[in-house]
Amino acid sequence: CCLPPPHSATRQSVMQSRASDSQPGHVLVSPIAGAAGDYDLREIMARPGSYTWCALLVACLACVCNAQKDPPCPVDMEKVLPAARYWGALPCRSGNTAAEAGGRCEDIKGKVALIVGASTGLGRGVADRLAKAGMTVVGTSRTPKEYLDGNTCTYTRPGDRCKPEGWQLWQLDMTSQASVDALMKRMKDTYGQIDFLFLNAGRGYGSNSFNPSGKTWCNDVSRMQEVMDTNFMGPVRTLLAALPLIPRTGYARILVTASVATWVSIQGGLPYGASKAAVADIGEEWLYEHYDGRAKNIKFTTLHPGSMLSDLARKSVPACSKQANVFENDWKQWENGSYNQSNSVYLTPAQGGEALYRLAIDPSPKMRYILNEQRSLSFMRKRLCTHFTAPMDVWPKAWN
Question: What is the C-alpha to C-alpha distance for residues 208 and 329, in angstroms, rounded to an integer?
Fold first, then answer.
């Protein structure tokens, strides 16, 4: 930030003097990406001005950072927690490229997909991508009219209200058994079965639970129950009601959205993290009940998304009436501090949609994946490794 830019007169002068320098013991500073460039520390020190101390500072910081790298993870995180990839070769052979791996891709054209929570975010990206691939897609929303009356657009940012294109959007409130039953009756009457079920809908929560000095500290336990009822009991209700419509032979998929918050508690998100840990347990329950091969054709997958562009913050449940009064300002501040920063690395709905399309055509999907933006995947795995293998009291320091 304080060294001369690559094309400045100072930089050119340094480079010229360096080219004619034949003194022994020439000390070179290794390139520091995005900061110092390829500079000769001795030559910069010999020049007047503030560059001298900045160069020394940058060089020292580089040494400190290199000396304090994270220790290697004792667990193979790529094997323990594989990534649902939206990049690279397909996980199966479609016949289009020799680079593809695995068995023959599943033919999903004409299959019926039900995406629970499809109005925005990940669900929206999945509905768009599967419809493009030829599936018959029904998405759900608590308030479908605001999207059916929306704009002709592609959802890319929180707050976008886009009409579904190539798929339908039906009403569902997962906290209501009557609403769930009505949806399943409509699915049975219209399509007769559900080949691909994605239980994705959920709501956030944002208030310190045990810290009175927190910004919006207040807690109404009934609001916590609302989050648990939506995020955990909602998928359970919907799955139980949908099971009779899922084929017992041939192609059949069930996917549920948990979160990295399953393992990493988000400050101020107690009921959210607890609900996502419970959702992850649905997958474990399925494993233990079907390890002997029952319903072998049904492939069950739990997804653990990291940071993603969605409407989750603005659709969170206020912790109490006190927070409800300032809630809009709270989520706007959160979005501005997260989504709207130039260095933010968030998974887009389109990337999430591509990742789930690949799981849909994969003949042998795994039971658990992390779903994360590619550039921050290594960071996320390192931090999760800390939680899996290190004492609890060092977790906050490791995250910082």
Answer: 17
